[in-house]
Design brief:
Radius of gyration: 23 Å
Number of strands: 5
Distance between the termini: 33 Å
Largest sheet: 3 strands, mixed
Oligomer: single chain
Protein name: DUF885 domain-containing protein
Pfam families: DUF885
InterPro entries: DUF885
Organism: Streptomyces morookaense
Strand content: under 5%
Amino acid sequence: MADELNTPRRIADAHVAQVAALDPLVSARLGLHPEDDRQPDLSPDGFDALADAARRTLTALDAASPAPEPVEQTCARLLRERLTAELAVHDAGDNFRQLRNVNSPLHKVRRIFHLRPTAAEDDWAMTARRLRNVPRALAGYRATLGEGISRGLLSAPRQAEACRAQLGAWTGQDTGTAGWFAEFAANGPERLRPELDAAARRATAAVAAFRDWLQDVYLPAADGTPDAVGRERYLRSARWATGADLDPAEAYAWAWEEFHRTAAEMRREAGRVLPGADVLTTMTHLNEHGHAVEGEEAVRDWLQQIMDEAVAALDGTHFDLSGPLRRVESRIAPPGTSPAPYYVGPSLDFSRPGRTYLPTLGRTVFPTWQLVSTWYHEGVPGHHLQLARRAGLAGRLSRYQVTIGSVGADTEGWALYAERLMDELGFLTDPARRLGYLDKQMLRIIRVIVDIGMHLELTVPAGAGFHPGERWTPGLATAFMAAHHGSPAARRTGEIDRYLGWPGQAIGYKLGERAWLQGREAARRRHGADFDLKVWHTAALSQGALGLDDLAESLAAL
């Protein structure tokens, strides 16, 4: 009996339970512990508690019985790799300088409100209690960043400034509004409004105080901290983001090959849209004269239609989309969020569906030429299909493999592969929409080039057609993006800030897609005329999370 309990899957499931008990954001994301009104513990003790849980799990895994079953071996390998990478980041003290404009501990404080239900009055009473806990969460995060100051482990000033600006939108200080927390509380039931309003004011005041602390204390302390993190930290962070020990020189050289290939394809597609015009002129033309949707609600509905049409077209032909997989909601992202669209997966019981979010960045008119492939990426057949299907596999695989064991390069690689698949299947024959797809491919190629280039301070190669021989800087990276990607200035700034604050994460999209394509091609060669793409997709999406060290090989064997 002891051996039956001491298997990798049981150990992995127990780890998910430990993490969910420690981190209310994880429990909210998975739909567990509905009575939990806490905010995440962002203090040094909170990070240490998660690290201690990882160490206990690795100790249990070391003592586990040998696992002859392939599914148990895969679970054990993933669990060991993920926790080892996580502890490497923690033990190096990187948590003390984890301040950035996207997916930082700071953003957990608000994100948790999107994950808990708000249908019943009891839900709103829980929300009021969680609002009252915002000051404690921010005090813990300030203690962590303060410890980073004392140890000389700081984020660069541009990261603190980006977060400070976001907090201005949260509080309403920069927009002249009551702030996000007040607007969120205003949706509650009338009987609880006094309690909710008071709790929202308390949360807003705490955010404003934290913003002032960033301005008055952190920014002066961070002065002189370089944007580039250097090779050692970069490879450590990239390991966590990709599940692989990367060769950055190989990835950098490969990305330049992809850059030149895709740039040529974009020039050809631009000629179909506006004969005789270059790519940037064509993009400007599409932004000013192409199809557009006006208003937040209208664009939300339009994006929902894109996903609904994809579900109807793909179900039964290229994928099996049944039950809760068919439900995905389009939403507008709240102010002060990431500049890029994003997806939030469903709870394990699907009571909360998968949701896509569009940041408006102050816009009221939305050109659609770039949005179609992006919503194939975020919705169907991208993130929603993969992550919602994984949630449905929780009975067959370990919860760890289908939830918190996720590897960014695997999931983002699939989503980028999904965009390419829709192009291959003929969903992007319209020249404007196809140029939008290629522009998004180019963005992910640029990410590999400038992310590696900036952090390792590489030079632009000869023959690049752009500042050859110059060493990458944030300014040069911004100019490169402006020259080759059709994004507005605010999006470009947010992108560069993101790469510098989250080293090694942004390269996973394109490197992950490469692994998916390599795995598919190898499987196609192995099966020959018997290769069935729908069968392969079903098997591939049923594996659970994998790092890039394992992904292509595993896909090839299907």
